[in-house]
Amino acid sequence: MKLKHLLASSLLAWGLSAQAAPMVIKFSHVVADSTPKGQAALKFKELAEKKLPGKVEVQVFPNSQLFGDGKEMEALALGDVQIIAPSLSKFGKYTKKLQVFDLPFLFKDIQAVDRFQHSKAGEALLHSMEKKGITGLGYLHNGMKQLSANKPLGNPSDAKGLKFRIQQSDVLEAQFRAVGANPQKLAFSEVYQALQTGVVDGQENTWSNIYSKKFYEVQQYIMESNHGLVDYMVIVNSKWWNGLPADIRKGLSEAMSEAIKFGNDAAFNEAAAFREKVIAAHKARVLPMNKDHLDAWRTAMKPVWKQFEGEIGPDLIQDAQKANN
Ligand code: LMR
User: Fold this and answer.
1) Contact (Cβ atoms closer than 8 angstroms) between residue 56 and residue 49
2) CB 203 within 8 A of CB 220
């Protein structure tokens, strides 16, 4: 009788605690909630918790609050975070293939990027790091990059000798070296201060990042160069992902697809509004670049393609180029 009672109460306690403890899923990123990635992360939380009520709790950590650049990949491998969405420029340690996304002036616009990502070659890249324990759940857009500095950069020679903050990417390093500038790899969370204190003279980023991180306060000129891309791969630890109960993996997977679509719509629809906000702040001057200027930059940076062709693979570069048509 006593044993039965004990068994019943421990079963009850087990049942209660199983019910009371949803699986915690941490989603960490480095940008603001208002950006496409920030919005996608919050949408994922909403959808995942709706699809898997009581089973999962998604905690979103924006603005490098939990892990910044450099630490988030390690944290994913250790299981300290479950979902991250690093910029495609930050995967150099894991695969050289994704360097294709950093080649300057490769994609004519974000729609071309989207077409390439959804091509066979683009989809295959989501699984290119499985051996390293990383599974890509999908691509997420931010947008095209603009150059900024404290002087106008009409010609590539204007950048000579200037220090530019770059992401962790050898291609971006080569891109700035090609115009005689000095690139410096810095974490995203350090950019504002680096610009403010003159550690660097300029940087390259999207309208949503320039606005939400107030880079326009500490830069006098923003050139409408659209010379490159900031996009993301949403990734998980393969072992963790494959070990999830099937119903949870399915629910999370569906939630992520919808959240990515939501974030991508924001990226497509809101870049112009972020640009307007930067202009309306009346701090930095936003300068258009004419065809001659853009051609000069394109020509100056073109040797970078050859330099990285061996690592990326000429076929992949061609596949990416085809998406422009
Ligand atoms: C950067 O480091 O400049 C950006 O890639 C940050 C981000 O995640 O958009």
Assistant:
1) yes
2) no
- Asked if residue 279 belongs to a domain, the reply is yes
Q: Report the C-alpha gap between 291 and 162 in whole angstroms.
A: 23
> How many CB atoms within 10 Å of residue 180?
14
What are the angstrom distances between the C-alpha of 181 and each of 163, 198, 272, 305, 306? 6, 15, 29, 18, 19
Question: Is 54 a member of any domain?
Answer: yes
Domain containing residue 29: CATH number: 3.40.190.170
Q: Output the residue whose Cα is nearest ligand 1's atom 2.
A: 188
Tokens of 320: 């990416």
Range of the domain at 203: 2-317
Residue 323 lies in a domain: no
Q: In terms of pTM, does the model score above 0.90? A: yes
Q: Tell which atom from ligand 1 comes closest to the C-alpha of 142.
A: 9
CB 143 within 8 A of CB 208: yes
Tens place of pLDDT per residue across the chain (325 aa): 455 555 555 555 555 455 669 999 999 999 999 999 999 999 999 999 999 999 999 999 999 999 999 899 999 999 999 999 999 999 999 999 999 999 999 999 999 999 999 999 999 999 999 999 999 999 999 999 999 999 999 999 999 999 999 999 999 999 999 999 999 999 999 999 999 999 999 999 999 999 999 999 999 999 999 999 999 999 999 999 999 999 999 999 999 999 999 999 999 999 999 999 999 999 999 999 999 999 999 999 999 999 999 999 999 999 999 999 9
Q: Coil, helix or strand for 281?
A: coil
Q: Is 172 in the pocket of ligand 1 (CB under 6 A)?
A: no
Residue nearest to atom 1 of ligand 1 (CA): 188
Check pocket membership of 84 for ligand 1, CB cut-off 6 A.
no
